[in-house]
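In this supplementary section we document a worked example of the pipeline. Step one takes a protein sequence of length 474 as its only input; no multiple sequence alignment statistics are reported here. Step two produces a three-dimensional model, which step three serialises into structure tokens for compact storage. The input and output of this example are shown verbatim.
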Amino acid sequence: MTRPRLLLLDDDARFAAALRRGTPERFELLTATAVAAAQRHLEDGIDLAMVDVGLAGRADPNDRSGLEFLSWAQEHVPDVPIIILTGLGADDVEVEALRRGAADFIGKEQLRIDLLVAKVEALLERRRLRSQTVVLRDRLDRYEGSELVGESEPMRSLKAMLLAYAASEATVFITGESGAGKEVVAQGIHRASPRKDGPFVAVNCAALPGSLVEAELFGAEKGAYTGSDRMRPGLFEQAHGGTLLLDEVTELPLESQAKLLRVLQERRVRRIGGTSERGIDVRVIAASNRDPEAAVRDQRFRSDLYYRLNVLRLSVPPLRERLLDVPLLAQHCLDRFRDRVPCAARRFDPVAVDRLIGYAWPGNVRELDNIVQRAATLCPTEVIPAELVGPWLLSAPVEPAACGLDFDRRAAHAQIEVFAEALDRARGSKEAARQLLGFADRSTMRRNAKRLRELYPELWKAYPTLTSYYPDDD
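The serialised model returned by step three reads:
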């Protein structure tokens, strides 16, 4: 993480030297004696500027005033707070500076370094919070994920890799099916990283209009294209100091891929219509539901960009490969829905949970979240019955996909499903379930249950009906 970069625009060399001596080491202080030089610094990336409004003893008499610089900064870098340094009797200048967008002002004659540092820290914190608020507001309507919920073996492995990757600054490439939770994983990496206090910005590259891809990513100056009525910082600038997720990155046009590669190499961006470049401090995470290697072979994805992004690799398993997580995820989705929308539903009937576990989930976690919301909306009681879950599961075949093509495991999964269904139909009566299953006696049924439970505990535990009626010591 880089130190906050401060800029002092003042032609008083003695004052600049005194401020440099008093500035804490946790800040990087740059100085300029002329507006033109200060503008170049801001375009390179400055977190806060302090400007002498008078510039009375300018080294260049053709240079512009501090107020003119303030107006320029408000147009080109409106997110950078400006502190105006004034002299005695400059009340009218202070009013004009505030009108033009100054964040604060302080008199140079009464200047105390500790007071200035306090103002700087408060404005930097306000800027950070404002940046996060903007990003969250932009993403609120399209937020689709959930937290990393699950205790299955695939999820435990994923969480361990996530924590290891979070400590690195290297680029991560996340692959996985649509709706599996790639953005949630990217958020988890960000929250566990040293950049957690910086912004997290996500963009779906497949949803960007081809003509606006570069303007969205790199920004655009006022008048750079038709309809560009103001300066717009790009997503790389918005993510400065934090993390940028390029979701569905393989869908970018090839021309834009070349420009993205250059930005990743140089760590500098130039806005569309701009003449100078700005330094960026961003960790990039890429994601795709497409096989990136296949996209490279098909010449739809640049190989040099792929190698630049594919430093660390994460694969998010589909929900059908971690069915043990379905009960936890379903309850999590229900709790989150209840936080937003008042409803009576609080939990699922065990039979409903079994129905959810037996489903193939072609739409992954996103599909589960949708089904939970439908059922909760229609449920008039605290317990969601199977009748409100089942109808939504008919759009895809039910299969024990988590077992792959392992013959014994697939056969065991089918037997476990039959056990659970028999107990459901028998309302928990083991004698009635035995008759439905055709076992000669209760001891035979118990031996088969024990065998399945011991050989495939993760499949057995995925069915609440079985764990309820067959505890481990039974």
